[in-house]
Amino acid sequence: MAIATNSWDGSWRWDRTFADFFPGDTVSGEGHVVCGRCRNCLAGRRTCAPKRAAVGVNRAGAFAEYIALPMANIWRHHESVPLDVAAIFDPFGNAVHTALSFPVLGEDVLITAPSHRH
Fold first, then answer.
1. What are the phi and psi torsion angles at 78 (to 5°)?
2. Domains (ranges, CATH) in the chain?
3. First CA to last CA across the chain, in angstroms?
4. d(CA 64, CA 115)
Protein backbone atom coordinates (compact mmCIF):
# COMPACT_ATOMS: atom_id res chain seq x y z
CA MET A 1 0.00 0.00 0.00
CA ALA A 2 1.13 3.55 -0.71
CA ILE A 3 -0.06 6.34 1.48
CA ALA A 4 -1.07 9.49 -0.37
CA THR A 5 -1.36 12.92 1.20
CA ASN A 6 -4.73 14.52 1.95
CA SER A 7 -5.20 15.89 -1.56
CA TRP A 8 -6.18 13.43 -4.27
CA ASP A 9 -3.01 14.37 -6.03
CA GLY A 10 0.17 15.23 -4.24
CA SER A 11 3.47 13.92 -3.04
CA TRP A 12 3.23 10.64 -1.24
CA ARG A 13 5.08 9.01 1.58
CA TRP A 14 5.68 5.34 1.96
CA ASP A 15 5.46 2.93 4.83
CA ARG A 16 8.15 0.69 3.28
CA THR A 17 10.53 0.80 0.32
CA PHE A 18 8.94 0.77 -3.14
CA ALA A 19 10.92 0.37 -6.34
CA ASP A 20 8.47 2.22 -8.60
CA PHE A 21 7.85 5.45 -6.70
CA PHE A 22 10.13 7.93 -4.97
CA PRO A 23 9.60 10.68 -2.37
CA GLY A 24 8.42 13.86 -4.07
CA ASP A 25 6.71 12.06 -6.98
CA THR A 26 3.29 13.50 -7.78
CA VAL A 27 0.78 10.68 -7.83
CA SER A 28 -2.94 10.09 -8.32
CA GLY A 29 -5.01 7.01 -7.68
CA GLU A 30 -7.90 4.99 -9.03
CA GLY A 31 -10.71 5.13 -6.51
CA HIS A 32 -12.15 1.63 -7.03
CA VAL A 33 -10.31 -0.81 -4.77
CA VAL A 34 -11.02 -4.37 -5.89
CA CYS A 35 -9.79 -7.92 -5.37
CA GLY A 36 -8.36 -8.30 -8.88
CA ARG A 37 -9.26 -12.02 -8.90
CA CYS A 38 -13.02 -12.29 -9.40
CA ARG A 39 -14.74 -12.81 -12.75
CA ASN A 40 -15.51 -9.09 -13.21
CA CYS A 41 -11.99 -7.96 -12.32
CA LEU A 42 -10.43 -10.49 -14.69
CA ALA A 43 -12.79 -9.33 -17.47
CA GLY A 44 -11.77 -5.69 -16.97
CA ARG A 45 -15.03 -4.69 -15.28
CA ARG A 46 -13.46 -3.61 -12.00
CA THR A 47 -16.30 -1.24 -11.12
CA CYS A 48 -18.68 -4.23 -11.12
CA ALA A 49 -16.62 -6.38 -8.72
CA PRO A 50 -18.84 -7.65 -5.89
CA LYS A 51 -16.25 -6.93 -3.19
CA ARG A 52 -15.20 -3.48 -4.35
CA ALA A 53 -14.62 -0.51 -2.09
CA ALA A 54 -14.75 3.11 -3.22
CA VAL A 55 -12.54 5.92 -1.98
CA GLY A 56 -14.78 8.56 -0.43
CA VAL A 57 -17.69 6.14 -0.02
CA ASN A 58 -16.67 3.18 2.13
CA ARG A 59 -12.95 4.00 2.36
CA ALA A 60 -11.33 7.23 3.52
CA GLY A 61 -11.74 9.97 0.92
CA ALA A 62 -9.62 12.91 -0.17
CA PHE A 63 -10.57 14.96 2.89
CA ALA A 64 -9.08 12.34 5.21
CA GLU A 65 -5.59 12.93 6.57
CA TYR A 66 -4.24 9.99 4.54
CA ILE A 67 -5.49 7.66 1.83
CA ALA A 68 -4.14 4.11 1.64
CA LEU A 69 -4.34 2.47 -1.78
CA PRO A 70 -2.90 -0.67 -3.37
CA MET A 71 0.10 0.08 -5.58
CA ALA A 72 -1.86 -1.12 -8.64
CA ASN A 73 -4.23 1.83 -8.14
CA ILE A 74 -1.52 4.51 -8.19
CA TRP A 75 0.20 6.21 -11.09
CA ARG A 76 2.92 8.83 -11.25
CA HIS A 77 2.24 12.05 -13.13
CA HIS A 78 4.83 13.28 -15.56
CA GLU A 79 6.55 16.37 -14.19
CA SER A 80 5.09 18.47 -17.03
CA VAL A 81 1.50 17.87 -15.82
CA PRO A 82 0.38 20.87 -13.70
CA LEU A 83 -0.99 20.01 -10.25
CA ASP A 84 -4.40 21.56 -11.03
CA VAL A 85 -4.71 19.15 -13.98
CA ALA A 86 -3.34 16.17 -12.03
CA ALA A 87 -5.92 16.84 -9.31
CA ILE A 88 -8.84 16.10 -11.65
CA PHE A 89 -7.59 12.90 -13.32
CA ASP A 90 -9.75 10.50 -11.30
CA PRO A 91 -12.90 12.62 -10.91
CA PHE A 92 -12.76 13.78 -14.54
CA GLY A 93 -12.39 10.19 -15.72
CA ASN A 94 -15.43 9.23 -13.65
CA ALA A 95 -17.44 12.14 -15.07
CA VAL A 96 -16.51 11.29 -18.67
CA HIS A 97 -17.35 7.60 -18.13
CA THR A 98 -20.73 8.53 -16.64
CA ALA A 99 -21.57 11.08 -19.34
CA LEU A 100 -20.71 8.62 -22.12
CA SER A 101 -22.85 5.90 -20.52
CA PHE A 102 -26.13 7.79 -21.02
CA PRO A 103 -27.75 9.82 -23.84
CA VAL A 104 -27.02 13.27 -22.39
CA LEU A 105 -26.06 15.18 -25.54
CA GLY A 106 -27.50 18.69 -25.24
CA GLU A 107 -28.63 18.15 -21.64
CA ASP A 108 -27.56 20.04 -18.53
CA VAL A 109 -25.86 17.54 -16.25
CA LEU A 110 -24.48 17.82 -12.72
CA ILE A 111 -22.17 15.04 -11.59
CA THR A 112 -21.29 15.00 -7.91
CA ALA A 113 -19.54 12.50 -5.65
CA PRO A 114 -19.12 12.07 -1.92
CA SER A 115 -15.90 12.24 0.03
CA HIS A 116 -16.04 11.35 3.69
CA ARG A 117 -13.70 11.43 6.62
CA HIS A 118 -13.28 8.07 8.32
1. -65, 145
2. 2-100 (3.90.180.10)
3. 18
4. 9
Distance CA 60, CA 74 (A): 16
Instruction: Give me the sign of the Cα torsion angle 70, 28, 108, 112.
Output: positive
pLDDT tens column, 30-66: 888 999 999 999 999 888 899 999 887 888 876 777 7
Which pTM was predicted?
0.66
Distance of CA 97 to the CA centre of its chain: 14
Mark 91-108 as b/e (b = at least 16 C-beta within 10 Å). Answer: beebeeeeeeeeeeeeee
Average pLDDT over residues 75-92: 84
Query: 30 with 55: CB under 8 angstroms?
Result: no
